[in-house]
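Appendix C reproduces, verbatim, an entry submitted by the partner laboratory led by Prof. M.T., so that reviewers can inspect both the input and the predicted structure.
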Amino acid sequence: MKTAFLYTEKYFAYDYGATHPLRIERLRLTYDLCKAYDLFNLPDTGLIQTRPASESEILGFHTPDYVEVLKKASCGQTTGDFSYGLGPGDNPVFQGLWEWSQLHTGASLQCAELVLEGKTRIAFNIAGGLHHAGAGQASGFCYINDPVLAIYHLVERGKRVMYLDIDAHHGDGVQWAFYEEPRVLTVSFHQDGHTLFPGTGGLSEMGRGEGLGYAVNIPMLPGTDDHVFWNGFKSVVPVLMDLFSPDVIVSQLGVDTFLDDPLAALEFTTNGFCRVITYLTEKARAWVALGGGGYNPCNVARAWTLAWAIMNGVELPDDLPESMVEPLSDQGCRGQKLRDPEHQSPLQEKCQHRMEECVAYLETKVFPKIK
């Protein structure tokens, strides 16, 4: 296989709740749109059934006491102790939250295994990318940090890993897990933490000890559009790829960066997103691609379907398959096109100035430290 897509219908036994922004149903919408475009019958691709991660695998990063709390909460055995980040709000207690976490994490570990064993160059887990969870703490809709566990799996087998996060929210949980680790280069493009959860990801967060220089942050102003983002991306990522020479890229492909996402204030479209996917498809030696944020399900389905097509070298027609027009419309899709029109932010000049400041800082303070 050149590419692998991880998926299971078991995801839909679980639900964060009717009013929660993270809707697991968006995964089915993505799968159905890929299927409607006949993207699972391509040569050299594999559609692989997700397996749940084992408790011992999850304990590779998360603490035993936290795992026990998650298992009890998943069965309704809550004690009223919210010190682990559980409770009303971002990280609700719901039936099966442990089993849901095992599934999305297992799929990310499968992706790591597939590229390690040389069975595929690109493996895509749309359910993954839950990048905020700490070793003993739920955070930002995330209970288990599947990117961290996938990266551990790769590093323990001798691989140098570049973690690239383009979600609107800073990839804090992954950064802190590897903050002193020079075998992992974490790179996060995100909305400035002064304006958005989790409030971290400043330029000066560069790593510590042997890991100094191996944490790279690009905090973007609200209003940043495709043009500004791509200018920053092409100024930073190719240089880092050359300096660090990763064996594997693990990416978090959140699309809460898009213009009409309800939780953030960036102004990306499918156009800028697809440029990143094309770059990684061409340049990555091996690539573990993970989902992430995205709270407009229509954007999620269209963007990740485009990503899967690009990974497989397929140019999709812009007209949506007839069978998907109504399901996407029901989720708020305003037109019948796969791609967004070009968009220029009214704040483009201000955002471009900030991006240039970020790049200049990285060129002088961070790039020289990477070996």
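The domain at 3-49+107-369 is CATH 3.40.800.20 (Arginase; Chain A). Additional entries are available on request from the coordinating office.
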